[in-house]
Amino acid sequence: MIPRYLVLLLFTILLAGCLAPGGGGPPPTPTATYTQAELKYLLLDHYGEDRFFYCDPDYYPVARDDEQERAIAAFPAIKNDTEAFSAITARKGLHPPYSDDDKLVIYQEYKKLWAIPLEPAGDGTYRFSLQLGTMGKGQRVSGIIRSDGVILSEQSENAILTCPICLVGETLIDTPSGPMPVKEIRDGMLVWSLRLDGTREAVPVLLAEKNRAPPGHRVVLLRLSDGRELSASPGHPTMDGRTLGSLAKGDELDGVMVISANLVPLAGEFTYDILPAGGTGGYWANGIPLKSTLF
Fold first, then answer.
1. Where are any strands of DSSP class E within 25-167?
2. CATH number at 172-291
3. Fewest C-beta atoms under 10 Å: which of 29, 111, 137, 217?
4. Distance between CA atoms of 231 and 234, rounded to whole angstroms?
5. Which spans in 4-94 are helix H?
6. Domain spans of the chain?
């Protein structure tokens, strides 16, 4: 007969082996970890890829007819972005050798993924933001997604969906309290607006919008003969119905001559615009009267 103390000792050893790391029992289930590109696809699946709104740089602000050529030219750089390239080709079931049609698909998907910003939020989590809907009224959703694909938090708000036909963030808006950068303007703040009779009035801001610009977006750097300057997207309207992109040297704007109007790369990732109350949608940006794109 085995002594009682040996039986207890053997039982204790076996129990410790089962509970210790690497001991008996089933192995722990590994947790999936996704790349940022894969997380973006998970977000598109969650919210509906057909509802995703973004501005394609090959069709805004001016439509181009060389998307295929640009896709072929961009292919080596996209392929070097191994995480995105792997996610795209897996999603679309593409395999080498890649045809020109394949490269176009990859290019189009790459532009779409670029339009979904993910910002590290610590502990393997990311802040996300997407726009859902069509041109005009829609939604902006944001929140936190974990590297295993679990969405920890999400918020949704109504938004006017537009492509960037707006101002750079440092543009100064005339307000009763003095000039203020457009990126700091919030709903309800008072700004100077243009009445129908040409005089100014202090009115509240109905909407203050911020839009992520597509890669390669360029803005018009406008210089007037009296020293005023402005940087804004080519499609931004003036109070007389023209657009900044239509202005050229020698044209007249707000009673003075245009010295130059050149396209330059956007400094930053976002463009901004406001909608003042009143009947004109007008306001002053760097001292130049403009009409809101949200009007």
1. 118-122, 125-133, 136-146, 151-161
2. 2.170.16.10
3. 29
4. 9
5. 4-19, 36-47, 67-80, 82-92
6. 36-161, 172-291
Rounded to whole angstroms, the Cα distance separating 180 from 283 reads: 12
Reduced to 3 states (helix: H, G, I; strand: E, B; else coil), residue 171 is coil
Whether cis (ω within 30° of 0) applies to the bond prior to 265 is no
pTM (two decimals): 0.61
- Token pair 């949608």 is at which residue? 281
Residues recorded for the chain: 295
Q: Is 254 exposed, middle or buried (0-12, 13-18, 19+ CB in 10 A)?
A: middle
C-alpha 109/C-alpha 90 separation (Å) is 12
Output the tens digit of pLDDT for each of the chain's 295 residues: 444 443 343 444 344 443 334 444 455 555 789 999 999 999 999 999 999 998 887 776 555 668 899 899 999 999 999 999 999 999 999 999 999 999 999 999 999 998 898 999 999 999 999 999 987 778 989 999 999 999 999 999 887 777 766 899 999 999 999 999 999 999 999 999 988 887 899 999 998 988 777 666 788 999 999 999 999 988 889 998 888 988 999 999 999 999 999 988 888 888 899 999 988 999 999 999 999 988 7
- Separation CA 106–CA 100 (nearest Å): 10
Evaluate the CA torsion angle 148, 150, 156, 159 in order and state its sign: positive
